[in-house]
Amino acid sequence: MKLGVIIGTVWSSKKVKELAACRLAIVQPVAGDGAPIGNVLVAADPQHIGGSGDLIMYVTSTDAVQAFESGYAPVNASIVALVDELS
User: What are 34-86's pLDDT values in tens digits?
Assistant: First the structure.
């Protein structure tokens, strides 16, 4: 799992059926101290976990599709948890 901050939302008028009710968020990956690292990415938020400015955990690759109840969606990154605090 990786840390990120939601910095925006992607709006789409057409989606594949697996993403019909799914939010798409623009995520800035961050280090443990909150410093931005790497390039921004688009992550699916199938459970509607986060909003703009929230610190979240996301997964990529095969783990990303497991965030969906159906067990399948054509995504490369998914938000899986809201982070309350870092210690």
Answer: 899 999 999 999 999 999 999 999 999 989 998 888 878 899 999 999 999 88
**How many angstroms separate the CA atoms of 82 and 56, rounded?**
5
Count: domains in the chain: 1
Residue 75 lies in a domain: yes
CATH classification at residue 28:
2.40.50.220
The residue segments making up the domain with residue 71 are 2-82
* Structure token pair of residue 10: 């992607």
Select the more confidently predicted residue: 87 or 46.
46
